[in-house]
Amino acid sequence: MSFTLHGIPVSRGIAIGRAYLIAPAALDVDHYLIEPDQIDAEIARFYAAQASVLAELEALRDDLSADAPSEMGAFINVHTMILNDAMLVQETIDLIRTRRYNVEWALTEQLEILGGYFDEIEDEYLRERKADVEQVVERLLKALAGAPTAASLVVHTAASNGHNEMIVVAHDIAPADMLQFKTQAFKGFVTDLGGRTSHTAIVARSLGIPASVGVQQASVLIRQNDLIIVDGDHGIVIVDPAPIVLEEYSYRQSEKVLEQRKLQRLKFSPTQTLCGTKIELCANIELPEDAQVAVEAGAMGVGLFRTEFLFMNHKDQLPEEEEQFEAYKRAVELMNGKPVTIRTIDVGADKPLDSMGGDGYETAPNPALGLRAIRWSLSEPQMFITQLRAILRASAFGPTKILIPMLAHAQEIDQTLDLIREAKRQLDEEGVAYDRQIRVGAMIEIPAAAIAVRLFLSRLDFLSIGTNDLIQYTLAIDRADNSVAHLYDPLHPAVLNLIAFTLREAKRAGVPVSVCGEMAGDPAVTRLLLGLGLTEFSMHPSQLLVVKQEILRSNLKAFEKPVADVLAAYEPAELQAALTALQKI
Ligand code: PEP
Ligand code: MG
Predict the structure, then answer these.
(1) Do 278 and 217 belong to one domain?
(2) 416: domain CATH number?
(3) Of 320, 432, 456, 562, which cross-links 427 as Cys (Cβ 3.0–4.6 Å)?
(4) pTM of the predicted model, to two decimals?
């Protein structure tokens, strides 16, 4: 039966494919495809894990005292039987062999399938045996976690395996888990939770594939392998579409491909407005390798390197200086002389770190307002200096800038600058090279920072407006919460006036300023930002050309009046009229 679900559009385009449902438990394990010549080794990993769990169960049985309740022995017997059952063993091995899933992925997939069978059983006692299967699979996963994996040998592409038709459907996907999908050829994403600028949405956008978030109940209503259409422009998901609908969307999809092809022609033309103002378009990246994509898309530099993604998936400790240095250097080298703005770690809120657990972070009453980003870095000076040293060392290999997230107070800026001086002093003492003129900038993403921007202008070399958080904190709307997503409004007069004020003050002080939040990559507001005086944009590489197209059609002189009207408008109808006038020029 065909039905339609509505959510929040976060990444444009149309995807048509089969639903690939990911259970929350499955997200805790690695998902990757193995090469044909790794199949035997992967199956051997399964058998080794099975043998180790069998040994565990035997040991449990041996340890049972004579007066232990008989249920204990029965429980061990049941688990041993499950562990040897063909439905678990053979089917998991088949998934490894036929779909080339890594063993952890195959096991969680098979657990989902078996879970579905159990749910349909009428007899309550038998239905509850599902928990036993889950426990056995958990034991197997634990055993596997201690064993080496073939991950390092994997070629992370599914394009040749027919998996490129898959659309991920999940209740929620943490940003760290999204990173795993960066290397997989999924065609789209649908999640029950999430807001327009949640980091999960941001990573989906950086993958350049259609995605809708906040599609309530999607992971419950959509079944494994259902044919679905994701309309990432409108946040719509159509399940089991009628043939005529499928035809219509296939047509729209091919139109979009054509549009994209046409846009490619703009890649090498200079980025300037009709009136000749030069505009700088840079890229936002999450991993060093993304720099390659940025170059290919025609970016003039990296305007925002979100380094916290390097720190995720590090279970016990943060990466050492050397590992960080290599990562930053790689991005700098890939940009080949174009500047790279490296933002220091911005963890917290929807980007927690595994290794932050111990300090009460996870139980913070309100993580978005708590010890996050620079606040956390300043509370961990040793960790911060390690990162600063790594960035400074990378600056010897090409133009690099340091960007600090979430600053609000003068003393935070001063402490940060002191620590940068300390990192430089250490490197000087060790005779290590770095760029002595390295520029240090601040994200303007807290309303207090925008209003008191003079504190920043007198202390720092450049500013970058983070509209995602600026909107979140100005409107008191959690950017990752779909229940308030309808109130997350980039065009709220308070937001627009804060952006305008920051741009104006920075210009007056002669301090370069860019916008690196999601607004920068939204062609619907390109004219407005240009009209407010913005000349530096940083966005996902996939957005560069469509924004460039808007810039090439823009005449700044003609924007003056409608933009002044937008800023003066407080009533929604007035604001809308001024925006429409601006778009019509
Ligand atoms: C922002 O807040 O606008 C920004 C660019 O940073 P992030 O999205 O990583 O919080
Ligand atoms: Mg931010």
Answers:
(1) no
(2) 3.20.20.60
(3) 432
(4) 0.75
**Residue 466 Cα, ligand 1 centroid: separation in angstroms?**
5
Ligand 1 atom 1: the closest Cα is on which residue? Answer: 466
Encode 281-318: b = buried (16+ Cβ within 10 Å), e = exposed: bbbbbbbbebbebbbebbbbbbbbbbbbbbbbeeeeeb
> Is 516 designated active site?
yes
Q: Which of 178, 199, 306 to mutate to test the pocket of ligand 1 (most atoms within 8 A of CB)?
A: 306
Q: What is the mean pLDDT of each run of 10 residues along the chain (585 residues)?
A: 92 91 65 90 94 86 68 78 93 94 92 87 77 83 62 30 68 73 78 84 83 91 89 95 95 92 92 97 95 95 95 76 97 98 90 59 77 95 97 98 98 98 98 98 98 98 98 95 92 98 98 98 97 97 95 96 96 96 93
- Judge whether 540 counts as a catalytic residue: no
Q: Which ligand is nearest to the CA of 515?
A: 1
Residue 127 near residue 121, CB atoms below 8 Å? yes
Best probe residue, ligand 1, of 198, 463, 468 (max atoms within 8 Å of C-beta): 468
Judgement on whether residues 216 and 359 belong to the same structural domain of the protein:
no
Mark which of 222, 239, 256 sits at the end of a domain. 239
- Domain extent at residue 308: 271-584
Give the whole-angstrom CA distance, residue 419 versus residue 410.
Answer: 14
Q: Which atom of ligand 1 is nearest to the CA of 466?
A: 3
